Amino acid sequence: MRALIIQDDRAVKVEERPVPTLQSHDFLLRVTTLGLNPTDFKSVGANPIGARVGSDCVGIVEEVGSDVPSGKVAKGQRRALLTRPNQERGAFAEYIAVKWDEENWLVPDEVTDEQAATTPVPAYTAVLGLFGKTRLALPQPPRNGQGSSDKTIYVHAGSTSVGVYVIQLAKMAGLRVISSSSEHNWPLLRKLGADEVLDYRDSDLVEKVKKLANGGVDAVYDCFTEGGALQKSVETLKPDGRATCILPYDPASLGKRAEQTEATMVYSMTSQAASDEATDFRGLKLKADPSSFQLFSEWTERFHELGKAGKLQFVRTVDGGSLEDVQAGLEKLKAGKLSGEKLVYKV
Ligand SMILES: NC(=O)c1ccc[n+]([C@@H]2O[C@H](COP(=O)([O-])OP(=O)(O)OC[C@H]3O[C@@H](n4cnc5c(N)ncnc54)[C@H](OP(=O)(O)O)[C@@H]3O)[C@@H](O)[C@H]2O)c1
Predict the structure, then answer these.
(1) What is the CATH number of domain 122-294?
(2) Which atom of ligand 1 has the smallest separation from the CA of 340?
(3) pLDDT computed for residue 291 by the predictor
(4) Sequence spans of domains, the chain
(5) Angle between helices 326-334 and 38-46 (to 10 degrees)
């Protein structure tokens, strides 16, 4: 089968690899569509030469192992998968063997492959940051309805792929949402449900968020974090508010706000990695969240239900081409050339 492999020059290229051998607890996914995330170019830069590539894909179940519990996965289903690539396994290939309870959700007929390919890393990251017990720990929306809350959240960089899902899930939970992006993405943020929109470049950003929140917000989800963003975002918090973000940071740079802040790292808390131990996020010690596996398995069902009911808005997709074109997409993503959209590929 064709698979993307990291080359000596840190580019990716299609090479031939054997179709994975199925273990009894696995199913075999024939990949149809890929979604590109910044983590892909980061792992291509950091993982060993010769390693496999890709976190997010959608495909069709071709074979189901004998120990997969009955009723869980069936041949012919379309499923969207979040995985962490390594030496032998990556999402950017024609086939991938998937442990049945790894983070993957059944895509209903109402959702296209391309739409589903925008979800795995961004949407599970949104869930973990918003509802994880050691993150913002916000009450989850009821399964069949709209939540209600008197809390306000500030979603910094709401037009990122993570932000698109954070805004929607926070609204479903009933929160008031203040978000920021470039001005041309304000209509997108409003469509997702944001109550107030701001430009993250605004020199008075912190003051404006605080004014809109009558003094300070209950929660911050910083979907950008870099370049001093987090240091500003945490200044919008109430004294007892909580913040999460998506990249490592220097806790000392947050002063007393460090105690109110805990980064979200989706890879460290999936079923493949769920641990009681604090994890190392490039030097930053993260609090463990052993309940995250349960949270993810609940949302695996909820993504299906929301998709079926037409209640999830997906990141706008841009057709990047085929596996051979992924390298160009990684360069585009790295150069920051995407705005409120996601590159997807046919395999
Ligand atoms: N920790 C985790 O588990 C985890 C999971 C997923 C992603 N991440 C990380 O989260 C970050 C975002 O990932 P993503 O996939 O959501 O990103 P993305 O969709 O590729 O982000 C594109 C968006 O970034 C926004 N942006 C660019 N420069 C900005 C700035 N200076 N301030 C605020 N926003 C800016 C742009 O907004 P405008 O066009 O509106 O300006 C654009 O819409 C990446 O660093 C990624 O590696 C971490």
Answers:
(1) 3.40.50.720
(2) 43
(3) 87
(4) 2-118+316-346, 122-294
(5) 100
